[in-house]
Amino acid sequence: MKPSDLTELFALAALWGGSFIFMRLGAGEFGALPLAWLRVAGAALVLLPLLIARREHCDLRAHWKPILVVGITNSALPFALFAYAALTISAGLSAIFNAATPLFGAVIAWLWLKDRLGAPRIVGLVIGFAGVFWLGFDKASVHVGAQADASSAAATRAVLACIAASISYGFAANFTKRHLTGVRPMAVAAGSQLGAAAVLALPAWWAWPAVNPGGTAWLMVGVLAVACTGIAYVIYFRLIAHVGPANAITVTFLVPAFAVVWGALFIGERPTAAMLAGCGVILIGTALATGLLPRNRSTPRR
Fold first, then answer.
1. Confidence band, pLDDT 50/70/90 cuts, at residue 216
2. Residues 6+ apart with CB under 8 A from 236
3. How many Cα atoms occupy the beta-carbon half-sphere of 146 within 13 Å?
4. How far apart are alpha carbons 70 and 49 in whole angstroms?
5. What is the rounded distance in angstroms from the CA atom of residue 38 to the CA atom of residue 49?
6. What is the distance between the alpha carbons of residues 197 and 72, in angstroms, rounded to a whole number?
7. Going by C-beta distance under 8 Å and a sequence separation of 6 or more, which residues neighbour residue 27?
8. What span, in angstroms and rounded, lies between the C-alpha atoms of 34 and 26?
9. What is the DSSP letter of 146?
10. Residue 278 C-alpha from the chain's centroid
11. What b/e sequence results for 157-195 when a residue is b if at least 16 CB atoms lie within 10 Å of its CB, and e otherwise?
12. For the chain, what percentages of helix, strand and coil (3-state, to nearest 5) are there?
């Protein structure tokens, strides 16, 4: 990568790592569904003008049905689930579970798209999922930054919500590969946010808080929608265009680090040794499962 590409990669990781902090700060006053709707609606307002300016809206009109499915599975559902988790568990732990997304994506690709799983990828899946389950059952890590009145059952539900969100992301990636290959990325990004906003509008209205959130909460949601979602998508697709998807996906390894650091700096979350170790195990497994670790180059190709 060029220095400018690396700068964008780290900026993207910082934004997506920060999204877990802003969800943590905004979910308490808004609730999960309104927060998720505001996030996708704000992102749509950022992305749609760019789509129109590029004259790529024809792709959105032609492929709106699969784009809507992506909007539900890649934004509406996981954003709501992570916002729900933010009511209970720490931002850093949520981000670590999010890093397991490529693991679920690999399993879904194997089951659905019949992708071949070689020995290194299978080992990576075993290692990665071991890290996920280890963290899920580590009470000390789960209760880092948890609300004072949060019960063990609530913390467990939050962990399951994170895992379900990661599974949804993994499905969306494979669905996009199956049904939207060749469609311009900005059409998928803008259209999916618009579709997610439409799907979440009624649930968000139903769950809207009785007391209007304060100015700080609105500011957190604004940054989450505009910077951590809208602008982040623009950077992500620029990276894909400049360095390819395999290099762009390495952002997965940086997001948990930024989330943990932001959590410690701004909201006083202190990660446990088990959290850091579990994160390392998940990332090693992800690297193996996705082929990001270099293989033995001396092995002849057949």
1. very high
2. 12, 248, 251
3. 20
4. 20
5. 18
6. 9
7. 35, 83, 84, 86, 87
8. 10
9. -
10. 18
11. bbbebbbbbbbbbbbbbbbbeeebeebbbbbbbbbbbbb
12. 80, 0, 20
The residues spanned by each domain of the chain are: 3-289
How does pLDDT run across 241-285, given as a tens digit for each residue?
788 766 777 788 889 999 999 999 988 888 888 888 989 999 998
Residue 49 to residue 267: CA distance in whole angstroms: 34
The number of angstroms, rounded, from the C-alpha of 125 to the middle of its chain's C-alpha atoms is 19
Model pLDDT for residues 140-189, shown as the tens digit of each residue: 777 765 665 667 888 889 999 999 999 999 999 899 888 988 888 889 99
Which among 300, 283, 281 is positioned nearest to 292, based on CA atoms?
283
Are 145 and 269 in contact by the 8 Å Cβ rule? The answer is yes
How far apart are the two ends of the chain, measured CA to CA in Å?
Answer: 29
User: What number of residues does the chain have?
Assistant: 302
**Is 255 strand, coil or helix?**
helix
Q: Cβ(95)–Cβ(278) under 8 Å?
A: no
**What tokens were used for 125?**
């899946």
